[in-house]
């Protein structure tokens, strides 16, 4: 039940709080060790806020974040620092996440220096090993980020994230800023590293076609809440929330016969403001299936069908076509 609200202030000197941006508005999920949870939604849905709250770049307003039996939401000082070492993040834009004034060897070494990973020699050896692990040549170590392509920079960012041997990696849109031609290479690398180092991933993307080949389970987020959560294949085969169906409608199917037959939901309008969240079901202002009850009553996020599939919609059976089953 994680919540992250940012207060809005008014007044130059005597500031008063006039409202809140509800970036995360009661989110719950779990990730099994060694698995990947895909977190999907449009820009502004709160995905990145979840990532940042998990690594405590933001302190949650409410809720708990359990990691290995400890509540990350309340840890402070040395205990927080130790936990953070075990959870690392890969950011969307490899052009912005690497400081252009440092060589890539210093950038990869930095977390090891901060966390006192070993002697100078051990750190140097590990930098070269990490470069090999992510498919870059060790002789590149003394070059600067601007000497590399986007795909290579993201490999450097991945090497940096792995430097202190984390158990969990949060990848926030790791391929969105890359050319389509190199996306598959970076995704394959991430998958290979997951197997090699038994990593657990939270993989964030606005693109369901990217997550499809990567995640074990998928959570769909809308305006600060998870509206659907299911095993990957189940979610693609039987979406139970109109928003998920709309996101899936945007993913092209290569077979023209199937493409022609499938039922679609095309989204209209923009995401409402997280300052004024619509009443009842927060998706009702854009939902083509909305009824009177949707404007008044917030649907519960509850198990549907096989019990591992969760959705928050009054008419989820209608969405999935299982109404009469
Ligand atoms: Fe649409 Fe109503 Fe379901 Fe919300 S509860 S997604 S408005 S049908």
TrEMBL record:
User: Which residues are in the ABC transporter domain?
Assistant: 1-248
**Does Nucleotide-binding show up as a keyword for this record?**
yes
SMART domains given for it? AAA
Q: What is this protein called?
A: Oligopeptide transport system ATP-binding protein
By its UniProt entry, which SUPFAM superfamilies does this protein fall under? Answer: P-loop containing nucleoside triphosphate hydrolases (SSF52540)
List the molecular function annotations (GO) for this entry: ATP binding; ATP hydrolysis activity
- Say if the entry is tagged with keyword rRNA processing: no
The entry's family comment says:
Belongs to the ABC transporter superfamily.
Which keywords does the record carry? Answer: ATP-binding, Nucleotide-binding, Transport
Q: Name one GO biological process term.
A: transmembrane transport
Note the Pfam families from the entry.
ABC_tran, oligo_HPY
InterPro entries from the entry? AAA+_ATPase, ABC_transp_ATP-bind, ABC_transporter-like_ATP-bd, ABC_transporter-like_CS, Oligopep_ABC_C, P-loop_NTPase
Q: Which PROSITE patterns match?
A: ABC_TRANSPORTER_1, ABC_TRANSPORTER_2
